[in-house]
Each structure stands twice: as structure tokens, then as C-alpha cells.
Predict the structure.
Amino acid sequence: MAQRISRAKQRIKSSGVPFSMPNQQERAERLSAVLHVLYLIFNEGYSTTSGPSLRHADLSNEAIRLTRSVHGLLPADTEVAGLLALMLLTDARRLARTGPEGQLIPLEQQDRSLWDQSAIAEGTTLISDTLSKGSIGAYQLQAAIAAVHDEAARPEDTDWRQILALYGLLARMSDNPIVALNHAVAYAMVHGPGEGLKLLEGLDADERLAGHYRLTAVRAHLLERAGNLDAAIEHYRAAAAKTTSLPERDYLITQASRLVGSGS
């Protein structure tokens, strides 16, 4: 590490580039990059992309700690507050996400009494204060969606129309295929699985989602809701074969086996 620092100092010295404070545009770009990295660290900690564990608490905890630090330095920045609120509102469900053997428990089946109410209260206060300031960004919208989920005492109490409206805003703001996928799920919850499946057809041509297990898993879920159990089994199995996360693979295989056992 000392050698790397020494080489970096030499490169800086030889470049002749003076140290100076960034201008407003450079500062915004650098802050955006920092927030994106913190967002990725949290997501990897909360839903690990590969391996035997569903989450790595050290990563998600560190992401929250660092984002708190940034928020402390920039308390008026609405996107920093939005990202911190998103992390808190999402991480509040961590104890309910896994069973006694580490198996994945989906949101609608979680024991909501295990959710961290103090984290939910803090996150809800943060996002409520932030949204009232007028400037709305992608992290704030995602936090607002998480807050709607967390406010529902039961799965059937979830305000899916509000979630759909928020995803609609987010989709217009961000060209993100996962946002489009989540928008399709929300649309299906409001207008029925058949309508959601139609939206998925439009995502099949998106190269960023090509072969992604999440697209296949969502299609399996909507096919099951639509009553097409044979196709749902096929897609659950296909999604399981694509994911590198063992808990997610096991969950998808279990879903397929459950439908086979139901007599489809």
C-alpha cells in the first residue's frame, strides 16, 4: 500500500495538475459516483449475487454507515437523504428475509413483526422531509416505494396503485431495465398478471436483461398468478439454472416443486 501511495504521489507531481476544489458541476458528478458506489455496496450486501449466503451484513452495514457520514456532511442534499432512507427502509426487513436454515422468504410471506420499526420510522421521516423539498431524484423515489411496502401491516394492505405511480415516475427518470421489470410487477398487481406478462414481452428485446434470471423468475411468478402452472414450473426451473445465488436458486426450485406437487 505504501508503494502504491508513493507511486501515486509521483504521478501527481509529474502531471503538473494543481490541486483545487471542484466546481459545482464536477462536485455533482463526483457525488453522484460516490452515491452509486454506496448503493451498489448496499445491494451486494443485502442480496448477494453469488455464493451460499443471501446477504453479507458487513457490506450493507458499512454502506449505511458511510451514507450516514455523507448525509452528516451534506444534510441539505436530497438524494443523499433519499439514499440513506432507501437503505434504512430496505434493511429494516433483513431479519424476516430468511428462515432458520437461511432460506429466502419473499416479501409477501415475511413475518412483519420482525421488521425493524425504528429503522422504518427513521427512513420514513427522512424521505417524508426530503420529498417536501421539491427536488426529486431516483433514490428518493425508490425510498418512497420502500416506505409504501413497509407501511403495510399485511401484504394485502399494500398500496400497489401508489407503488405503480412511483415506478412510472422512476421509469421516466431512469433507463434502468430492473426498474422496468419492477414496474411490470407493480402493473400486474394493479391490472392483473396477464397485463404484466404483456409488459414483459417488451423487455425480452432488452439486451441488458437477456438471459437474466430475474426476468425469467418474474415471468414464472406472473404465469403462476395467471393459472398457467406448467409454464410457471418451466420458468421457475429455468430461472434457478441461471442464478449464481444458492438461496435464490433453492427458492426457485422449491417454487417449481410446489407447483408440481399441487397436481399441475
Summary: Strands lie at 50-51, 244-245. Residues 40 and 63 are 9 Å apart (CA to CA).
